[in-house]
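Please, structure for the following, as tokens.
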Amino acid sequence: MNEVPQKLHRDIMRSVKIVRRRYYLFGLLTGFFASLVAMLWVVYMRMIEIGSFDFLSVLAETLQIDVSLIVDFKEDLVEFLPLRSLGWSLALFIVISFLVGIIFRYRKVLFLKVDKFSKQIIKK
């Protein structure tokens, strides 16, 4: 068998490292996506439980009437919106966006077929 060029060997080894970890990356992305869906469901149920949607409609009517009343709703806003749950949902969304960015950045390597390199070696 012929010697494998150094550049081709480096490309193969880099791709093998990423390909070996792609299932973990997909599993991690799936887990975070499921967590985000669950967290958004918790936020939705919590908002129904404490009547946030009724409060938001009242807030929208108030905004149409007088903008100065927003200052008076400051305490109500903190009381009726589940800020902690919304914060966790936002954090999960940011992590999922980061993981999707990684997948799009390395999509050629993640979906690589192993026989690609064997054809290059045979050509030499």
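The mean pLDDT is 76. Helices lie at 6-50, 52-65, 74-80, 83-105, 107-110, 115-123.
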